[in-house]
Design brief:
Chain lengths: ~450, ~300
């Protein structure tokens, strides 16, 4: 299975990296203007478009402002907002689709994109190219929104996986901030243990992990493997998976992480209750777009560090994850208006002024350059972190195949089994592969 | 004799005469029948049909025969969910009914301010299945929760009750037992129905409190106990909110709170296996119906109806 990964060794200019994925995407010239792209005509009649997204109150307020700004420019278009939090979003979207009431514009997640696309819910955005330009997007990033050469989503922002360190806690216990350009997983655990011991158990070394796919993806890529291959088959080996859980289990036994029960309790409490946000652990694995929220909650000096590597891991394991996509309903009655709104969201400076980096550091490079000076200090450091990471960044991971959206639940479930000693890492790895395979087969259309 | 026949006998009316009244009755019942057809029977029929399909909500359902039902035999998480649910039902429902009966008898003693107590005890039944209470439960039984604070006063070091696989289900059982108010109110009403003369006769014969309870109260109350038992059993099998909120929707830790309905929800909405979820719903219906049937059959041997000859 490991032979399936097609990662290139060496330094890759990250944002511009031409990936296999992007190449396939570009082969169809998905969203670039072509002669075949239909001319879209805007209606003079009043048009109402529904627009759905997930998020928190901050995002809802920003998006309402975006809508108001767009409607001011286009008086005959009304955007009807439909928003919820993340937890209820997919229940609502899937039932809306079942009821034949698909929102015109959909905020889409990478793990769900292929599922919705394969079932014919999403529009080929290539058909909107006369209005919706994607030329300011690096091909590699744009490719993450394309499947088999069809562009189903325009990437909104980019993130990277990171280890957040609490500088104040490290200072308090006299532990030096490790050098994240060279540190290994063993260094990471050793430092975490050092903090836990120095504090006498008052704070934990590092928050536990194993509840979402980011950490697993990074680990697999560092082991020259990947979660999926380009054909949408599972590429991760049982051995690598077991190794991941083995490492977590050892770290837990060594006292580098909190005890499993405390971890589970915080995990279901979300970001605000996490050890990092409450300044109760020196380190914690997060996504780069969460730095702002964590800083707000913690009030202390949090630093984004690169993920440690295994000894001898080659560069190119890191990757930029699209935070989300703008997608459209394949059944919309107003493609021209949808294209106009998407263009406004994706390419206009006016929208960028409102969006800032709340949906991730903009994937649109032109917009990114435009907005970076306007960002606050925390988000500027995040942009800096992503830029500095570039030498390590390789190809985007192969797209999640249909049905892969449940992977977080499957990972979470098996991490619990391992932490509480109900399964060995080997058993968890075998069971994980079985359940993920089942999910992919269930979703086969 | 059927209930309707009984009614006719009492009223002394014969069938033909009452036909007009029947029409009127059916007219009054019509809104309810329409609701039943649209909101209950229709979706039930649809879910039965869907249980023979693969349906991901996004594309039309596809017929796959009894595959979903066969799959349930192999599905280990389903078996876990069944074990968790059975434990929950068979431990918490008897405890809940016992507590409800004990408090009903206590309150029936003509306590001053009875209505206040009755309302106070009934309140949890109204709130028990709500999200707010489930969140409160998380706070109470958390590592830094009130339960551990109180235990700390006695020098006992607590633990994270809801995040420990050994105790998580127990906290949900306590939550269910705590909602004893609804059966309690019904027990209270039942106790009021027992004629005082029985107790008077018994005390004349020298029966003590316990004998009176054992020989008069319990037998006279069996129909009410039976009614409460059926109602609470069915309700407990359908529990969802508590586990969903307390475990954050995962059924964790280590699937220890994976209620049947929670797993059904996960299959239907997270895995988009709506066909399989429908088949699971029908299995639950069969289980609950079978248990209810067994209960009705067994009731012949322990439920005493005063009006029986």
């Amino acid at each position: 299975m490991r032979g399936n990964t097609r990662r290139r060794i060496g330094v890759v200019a990250a944002m511009g990296a031409a990936t296999m994925l992007a190449l396939t995407a570009c082969a169809g010239n998905a969203a670039a203007p072509t002669d075949e792209a239909p001319q879209l005509e805007l209606s003079d009649e009043p048009v109402t478009l529904s627009f759905t997204w997930w998020g928190n109150d901050t995002r809802h307020a920003i998006t309402e402002e975006l809508i108001a700004a767009f409607e001011a420019e286009h008086p005959n278009i009304t955007i009807e907002p439909q928003y919820t939090d993340w937890a209820g979003y997919w229940d609502k979207l899937s039932t809306s689709v079942a009821a034949g009431d698909i929102p015109d514009i959909i905020q889409m997640d990478e793990k769900q994109l292929s599922t919705y696309a394969a079932n014919g819910v999403l529009m080929d955005l290539g058909g909107l190219s006369s209005v919706l330009s994607t030329e300011d997007y690096p091909e590699a990033v744009l490719g993450t929104g394309a499947l088999d050469g069809t562009q189903y989503g325009v990437p909104v922002g980019i993130n990277s996986y990171t280890i957040i360190a609490n500088q104040d806690l490290l200072d308090q216990y006299g532990v030096d901030l490790p050098d994240d350009e060279t540190w290994t997983w063993d260094d990471f655990i050793a430092t975490a243990q050092e903090v836990a011991e120095a504090s006498g158990g008052a704070v934990s070394g590092t928050q536990s992990w194993g509840f979402e796919d980011g950490g697993l993806n990074n680990w697999l890529r560092q082991h020259d493997s990947a979660l999926y291959d380009a054909d949408g088959e599972i590429a991760a080996s049982e051995e690598d998976l077991a190794g991941w859980w083995e490492f977590l289990l050892d770290a837990t036994k060594d006292g580098a992480t909190p005890d499993p029960a405390a971890t589970i309790e915080r995990e279901s409490g979300g970001l605000a209750e996490s050890f990092t946000a409450t300044n109760q652990s020196a380190f914690g694995p997060w996504w780069s777009n969460q730095v702002q929220a964590l800083r707000d909650a913690s009030g202390q000096d949090l630093v984004a560090l690169r993920v440690p590597t295994s000894k001898g891991a080659s560069d190119g394991w890191a990757y930029y994850k699209p935070s989300m996509f703008w997608s459209a309903s394949a059944k919309t009655e107003h493609p021209a208006e949808v294209a106009t709104f998407l263009d406004f969201l994706a390419n206009s400076e006016e929208a960028a002024d409102l969006l800032l980096a709340e949906r991730g550091v903009p994937a649109n490079e032109k917009i990114r350059d435009y907005i970076t000076p306007k960002l606050d200090e925390v988000n500027q450091t995040v942009v800096g972190f992503l830029d500095d990471l570039a030498p390590q960044v390789g190809d985007a991971p192969a797209a999640t195949p249909p049905g892969g959206g449940v992977i977080e639940a499957i990972i979470d479930q098996h991490t619990q089994q391992v932490l509480f000693g109900e399964m060995t890492p080997d058993e968890a790895a075998a069971s994980f592969l079985e359940q993920l395979q089942q999910a992919l087969e269930d979703a086969a259309v | 004799m059927s209930a309707l026949g009984e009614l006719r006998r009492i009223k002394g009316t014969s069938a033909p005469k009452s036909r007009k009244q029947n029409t009127a009755a059916f007219l009054f019942l019509l809104p309810w029948f329409i609701g039943l057809a649209l909101i209950t029977v229709g979706p039930m029929a649809a879910s039965f049909a869907l249980s023979f399909t693969r349906y991901n909500l996004l594309s039309p359902p596809r017929f796959i025969g009894i595959e979903n039902y066969l799959r349930m035999l192999q599905d280990e998480r389903l078996h876990t969910a069944l074990a968790v649910t059975f434990q929950y039902v068979f431990i918490s429902v008897p405890l809940q009914l016992g507590l409800a009966l004990a408090l009903a008898i206590l309150l029936d003693r003509g306590l001053r301010g009875l209505s206040l107590y009755r309302s106070a005890f009934y309140l949890p039944s109204l709130l028990g299945a709500s999200v707010a209470i489930a969140i409160l439960w998380r706070q109470l039984f958390g590592v830094d929760g009130l339960v551990n604070v109180v235990l700390g006063w006695f020098g006992i070091e607590g633990q994270g009750w809801i995040s420990n696989p050994e105790t998580a289900l127990g906290t949900l059982m306590i939550l269910n037992v705590w909602t004893f108010g609804a059966p309690m109110v019904i027990f209270l009403a039942g106790l009021r129905q027992i004629p005082v003369m029985y107790y008077e006769a018994a005390s004349v014969d020298g029966a003590n409190r316990w004998q009176q309870f054992r020989r008069i109260t319990l037998p006279m109350l069996t129909p009410i106990i039976f009614f409460n038992l059926i109602l609470q059993l069915i309700g407990a099998f359908q529990s969802f909110t508590q586990a969903f909120v307390v475990s954050g929707g995962t059924g964790g830790p280590v699937d220890s709170t994976l209620f049947y309905t929670l797993y059904l929800y996960q299959q239907g909405f997270a895995n988009l296996n709506m066909g399989y979820a429908s088949a699971m719903a029908w299995l639950l219906l069969v289980i609950v119906a079978a248990l209810t049937a067994i209960n009705f059959w067994a009731s012949k041997y322990w439920v005493f109806y005063d009006d029986q000859d």
